[in-house]
Amino acid sequence: MTNGWHSLPFPVPSGQIGGHEGVGIVQKLGPGSEIGTVKLGDRVGIKWAAAMCGTCMPCRNGFDGHCTMFKVSGYFTPGTFAQYALAPANYVTSIPEKLGSADAAPLLCAGLTSYSALRKCGANSGDWVVISGAGGGLGHLAVQIGARGMAYRIIGLDHGSKEALVKDCGAEHFLDITKFSSSEDLAKEIQKLTDGQGAASVVVCAGVNAAYAQGLGMLAFGGTMVCVGIPDGERKEIGNAFPANLVGSQKRIVGSSIGSQREAIEILAMAARGVVRTHYRLDKLENLTEVFQEMEENKMEGRVWVCFALKRRD
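RE: above sequence
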């Protein structure tokens, strides 16, 4: 546990087991869960939001990932970096038979978060959508979902070392952010690529303040910037978000995190059809510290899946 979100009000219990995006086989059912849809031997996933009540305002409005119970896997409840984990039978997500466990696991948070953000971005098929942080764990999934699943024209932004991955995921254009000296120069290049109009949406998967300061300048009239990545450290306002600019250009800023059970089912079904596939590698639990260090240094492409043997119950 790196406790990297120390700037947010997430009190992590001492000695907590981390991990989410877990996939496993149902080995035992607790009292009352037998009447649900989950059976012994089913392969299911545990999402970042590990539980929901079904009766609070967010749940009733389709935002069960923001349930006021707010049971976060690996934060408020023991997570999935373990051979066995507990989860509410009414909120695990069934894994499609055609989808491998390693392919499914990252979709339970990264894929779900990216898909939910794109559903909120306000773009129509054929519109230009910019993905900031396009080569990261969320970003490379957002590129695939947007380009292949929602018919958006994708422009990916990231470090130049990730260009091949981003284009392979379906981006029509890639811009190396290290080649631009200012937000204005980057916005001008986006304008050129979009025939002078700007993008219908910018989805900021990168967890850095500079990415947010750049975002509004890339948008077309009436465009939407979707906030996904959370910068660490001192909180800062979104640069250039002046009321007069937003009013005059009719631009919007929307927040998005995680997604609903319905969206989880939809993104897994999309993956089972071959529309989206996580770029990942398998690793062992004992290498977890090194994996987190790689993430901190922004050297990771896609996702790392920590693997245990999955055994069907007889």
